[in-house]
Amino acid sequence: MALTPTTPIPLGFKAPEFALPDVISSKILDFKAVKGAKGTLVIFICNHCPYVTHIITELVELAEEYQQKGFGFVAINSNDAIKYPQDSAENMMEFAKTNQFSFPYLYDESQAIAKSYDAACTPDFNVFDSNDICVYRGEFDAARPGNSVPVNGESLKTVLELLLADREVPQEGQKPSIGCNIKWK
To answer: What total number of domains does the chain contain?
Structure first.
């Protein structure tokens, strides 16, 4: 496992489009289909990364809470499933069911979407405002496997609450997410 942070890129970019299969519904979904009225979270995850599994329960709870407040959520797995069969579409479906995802889990087999989002790690969070402009690329919270900080989604909740209040999300001080590197082909 190579510890990798979110790639630091300037914020303010428009959400890149995608059309990917959802392993839960078997439908092809695009950004418009997952978009929320208040904003949208595009999260790159996988099934086996300890940084993802460390936060997954709280992430699912946060998604359920904020979907009711008008946010869209989507998770995307871009790992090479040939070299990492635990990230196959079948295993993604099982992971989503086991963790009771209330949001789509898309498979980016070509890895083109991960590249278009400059995704580097799992988990990698991208928060877009109601105009589909990226306002946050950072951590879920300060919890990491083994650091004894409670998993609570504090960093992400702060951003979502600012968007709900129609307040600006500060660009300074955003801490990158840290996790396993995306398993490139």
So the answer is: 1
